[in-house]
Amino acid sequence: MATGSKPATTDTTHMQARPDHLSKDALDAVNAGRHSRPFACLGPHTSGTQRWITTFQPDATEVSARTGKTDVGLERMQGDVFGGVVPDGDYTLVVRYADGTENVTADPYGFEPVLSDFDQYLIGEGTHKQLWRALGAHVMTHEGVQGTHFAVWAPNARRVSVVGHFNMWDGRRHVMRSLGQSGVWEIFLPGVGDQDLYKYEVLGADGSLVQKADPVGFGSQHPPEQASVVRDIDGYGWDDGAWMDDRRAKGAVDAPVSIYEVHLGSWRRRYDEGGRPLSYKELARDLVPYVKDMGFTHIELLPISEFPFDGSWGYQPVGLYAPTIRFGPPHEFRDFVDAAHQAGLGVLLDWVPGHFPTDAHGLAHFDGTHLYEHADPREGFHQDWNTLIYNYGRTEVRNYLVANALYWMEEYHLDGLRVDAVASMLYRNYSRKEGEWIPNKDGGHENYEAIAFLQEMNATVYGEHPDVMTVAEESTSFAGVSKPVDSGGLGFGYKWNMGWMNDTLSYIEKNPIYRQYHHDDLTRPLMWQYSENFILPISHDEVVHGKGSMIAKMPGDESEKFANLRAYYAYMWTHPGKKLLFMGCEFAQPEEWNHNADLNWGAADEPAHAGVRELVRDLNRLYATEPALHVKDCDPSGFSWLNGDAGQSTLGYVRYGRDGDAPVVVMCNFTPVLREGFAIGVPHAGQWDEVLNSDSTNYGGGNRGNLGGVKSRPEPRDGHDQSVEIVLPPLSVVVLRHAKQ
User: Fold this and answer.
1) What residues are annotated to the active site?
2) What is the CB neighbour count within 10 angstroms for residue 544?
3) At residue 550, what are phi and psi to the nearest 5 degrees?
4) DSSP string, 334-365
5) Measuring CA to CA, which of 185, 547, 599, 635 is 20 to 30 A from 680?
6) Is the pTM here over 0.90, yes or no?
7) What is the pLDDT of residues 449-489, one digit of tens each?
8) Looking at the domain assignment, is residue 28 inside a domain?
9) Domain range spanning residue 141?
10) Which residues contact residue 644 at a Cβ distance below 8 angstroms, ignoring those fewer than 6 apart?
C-alpha cells in the first residue's frame, strides 16, 4: 500500500441529507457485490449544488477525500460505503486501516470511460480489426494518472469485476462499468501496472459467480496457476526491417518453402536445471541457427497461445492473445521472432480456432450463458477432444477470432498461421453419427458459418498483410481451400496434402517385395496435386500415439531402414509441393516423439543418423538453389512423368522451372536391387550432372552412382528424343540436372 502522513488541515463534514442516487437499496447492493451499475452511485456525483464523493472501502476505519492540502472526511454511510460532500476540484482518496497503514489513491470511479463510441460501434458490428487495442488490460496514463484500463465483453453478465492482489481478490471492490448494448464492461484502475495478476469475477446471467481469465489477456501465470497477468506489450524495438520488406517473396508459391515444425518445450532441454525447456531467448540463441544451418526457410511452432495442460501440446488454448509464459514473457517471444527474421527465417504459428477447452477459468459459459460456444452439444461440443466449439455465427465471436489472427501478425510479426483441424470446422457431422449433429439450413452437412468465418479470416489477413501465408490442415476433398475468397474458395494460401502423406507413408512402410502391387500409392497423388497449393507434411502427428518414429516405420534391416528413409526424403523434396518436417525426423530419431523429454540428440551424432541429417540439409539447399524444384510447385507445367515400372518399383519424373532454368530429372528405386545401365528419357541433349544421390557415402550409403554425370544419346525414350543410362542404386533416389551448353 502507498503510505503518507496526514495533511495539516482536516475538515470532517457531517452527513447531510442522502441524495437520491445513494438509496439504501443501492448501497446494500454495493456492499453485497450485486450492483450492476456501480458508477451510478460511486465516485463523484452532483446533487443540487453539492458534489458528493462516495467510495466502497472494506476493512477501512477512516476514509477522506484529499483536495489540495485538505482532507475532507467521508462518513460511513452504510456497511463499507463512505461518502460525503467534497468541494469541486481534483481529489484523491485517503484510506486508513486499523493497523495504522494508509493508502492514497485516485478514485477508480472518478474517471471517464476510456473506450470511444467508435470502439463500441466496431465491437457491436463485429468489425474491430484491432480488438485487442480496445479489450484486455492496457497499461496507460488516463486523465493524467498512471494505471491500467481493463475491458471485457460479457453482455449477459449481471456484474463484472476486476480482481487481483491489488484488491485482495475481492469482487465487490472494483465492479466495472457496463457500456450498454456493446456488451463491454470497463474500468480504469490507478496504480495497477505491468506484471500485476488479475482475473474477471463474473456474476453470470444464471446467478453463478466465477473468476475468469481475460479472453484478450496478453499474459498469464505459469500453469497450473490460472490468473491473467498485466503485460505492457507496447514499445518493442524491432530489428527485422530487412526481412519484413522482403518476406512476401519468401512464402510465395514460386518460392522454396521448407518448414521445420517445432514443439518448443521438447526440442532441447536444460540438462543442468532439472530438464526444463529452453526459454525464448535460449531458443533464439540455439534453435534459430540450427534451423538456418539445416537449410529450412521457416519455423512452424506448435501452438503457443497460453494453454493449461502440457499434454495437449497447445491444442487446447485458453489465452489466445497470450504467448505461453512457459518460455518467457511476451517481449522475449518477440526476441525469438526477431532473431529468426534477422537470420532470414520466417516464423509460422499453429493456430487453433476450431475448439477450446472446458476449463472453468476459460471461455466456457463465460457470462453465465453459452457466449462463445453453441448451447446445443450437437453443435457446440467436440466428442473427439472433449472441447467446445466456437459459435462462428455470432458476430462478436467471429470478430474475436479474426482479430486474433491479425494480432499475431501485427504485435509479434509472425509470417503466417497454420490453421488446425479445418476439416472439423467445415462439416457439422465431422466425427459424428446420425442423430448427433444438426443439418444446416439447407439440410446439408456443410457448416456455412464456419466456412464464412474462414473466408473472412483469410480475406482480412491477406487484405491487411498480403506478405504472410495462411495454411489449412484439411484432410477432405473440400474444393477450393487454397483458392481466393472472391473465386468462391476459402482463401488459404496453402493446404496440407494429407492424401499424399497417407498414401506415400503406406507405400514406404511396406516390404519392398510388395511395393510393386501398390505403385499407385506414389502415382495417385499427382491426380489432385495441382487442385490446391499444397504443402507436403511429415508432421508431429506421424510420430506419436504408437505410430512409431520415421525410421521405425521403415522395413528391412538397419542398413535398409536408413536407405529407405533417405530415399523417401529425397522423393519428398523432389516431388511438387512445399515441404514440412517435424523436429527430430531430420536425423531419424529412433524413438517416437515425447513432449515431456527433449529430442535424442545423442543419436543425432551417430553415423547413420548424422547421414540422414546431412541429406536433409543438402535436400534443402538443392531445393532452394534449383528453380526447377520449386518455382512450379503449384503449376502443372512444372512436372512430367518418366515411364516408371511398377514391377521394378521404379519411378521417374522431370521437374521444370521457368524458361531458361535447367530442368531436373529424378529417378527413384524403391527395391534393394542395384540397377546398372538403367535407361531413362531426358528432355534435352547433352550433359546431365548428378546433383544428388541418396546412396552417397556422405549420407551413409554405398556410393553407387553417376560421379561425373552422364551424356545423352539420340535414342527416344519416355516421350523424349534423348535418353541416358544411369546407375540406379538400391533403395535410392538419383537427381540429375541438365548442364547448360
Assistant:
1) 420, 473
2) 16
3) -60, -40
4) HHHHHHHHHTT-EEEEEE--S-B---TTSSTT
5) 635
6) yes
7) 999 999 999 999 999 999 999 999 999 999 999 999 999 99
8) yes
9) 117-229
10) 519, 523, 650, 651, 652, 668
